[in-house]
Design brief:
By secondary structure, this protein is an alpha+beta fold. The chain has helices at about 10-20, 20-35, 40-45, 95; strands at about 70, 80, 85, 90.
Length: about 100
């Protein structure tokens, strides 16, 4: 049997127009509820249970670049001289690969 794909799909249009806005919202809410929590499972594993760290500050000492280190011009990370691949371009081995 041949199918004419150029004809409008009246059955789909009629079904869509018959549905109420409330029914569409309810269906969307059910679909969102099936997706689960908005909480990332890795985030819950890494967090300390019952600990409120909102008021805490992270204090760490930042050292300037040492004489035996360089900054890669591709990834902008500071590496030891042993990781230098191209001295002219100042590219590390990871970025050169």
């Amino acid at each position: 049997m041949a199918t004419d794909y150029d004809t409008p799909r009246t059955a789909d249009i009629e079904d869509a127009s018959e549905q109420s806005l409330e029914a569409l919202k309810a269906r969307r809410a059910d679909a969102a509820a099936d997706l689960g929590d908005d909480v990332d499972p890795f985030e819950t594993e890494l967090g300390l249970p019952g600990a409120d760290l909102a008021g805490e500050e992270l204090n760490l000492r930042v050292l300037p670049r040492q004489a035996d280190e360089f900054t890669c011009t591709q990834c902008y990370l500071v590496h030891h001289r042993s990781q230098l691949f191209d001295e002219r371009r100042m590219v590390c081995r990871d970025c050169a690969a």
